[in-house]
Specification:
2 strands; single chain; about 130 residues; Non-ribosomal Peptide Synthetase Peptidyl Carrier Protein, Chain A; mainly alpha; two-stranded antiparallel sheet
């Protein structure tokens, strides 16, 4: 069972997936920082509030708050991630398309075909 798990874990797809998850987590942190530190402050200034995360609505006298500002931050964060992933996939597809459009080189003849061609040419000269 341990050998089977090792074979499964070391398979190319699993390793590729692990690398993708790690890079995706790091990318998510970068985008979260972009949203909260670069994009949201100017939007907050325009809206008259310093930060969306401070926006909340107190429900009743119990002191429970509805933090809709955090929700707005999360939605904007998601939209930016979705746009970034879309642009990344679009770029990859464009590169793949360009690679597919390259004309394929004619395959080189094998040694046997070269030899047979030479024999044919010699026979044609006689």
């Amino acid at each position: 069972m341990l050998k089977e798990f090792k074979d499964f874990a070391m398979r190319g797809n699993v390793v590729d997936m692990a690398v993708g998850i790690i890079i995706g987590a790091a990318f998510g942190k970068i985008v979260s920082s972009l949203v909260s530190d670069v994009i949201m402050p100017p939007i907050g200034v325009v809206m008259g509030s310093v930060s969306f995360s401070d926006l909340a609505l107190t429900l009743g006298e119990s002191g429970v708050t509805l933090n809709y500002g955090l929700f707005i931050d999360t939605v904007i964060n998601f939209l930016i991630v979705a746009i970034a992933v879309f642009m990344l996939i679009k770029g990859i597809n464009t590169l793949k398309r360009k690679e597919e459009e390259k004309p394929a080189e004619a395959p080189k003849p094998s040694a046997q075909e070269v030899l047979l061609t030479e024999i044919r040419d010699l026979l044609a000269k006689r």
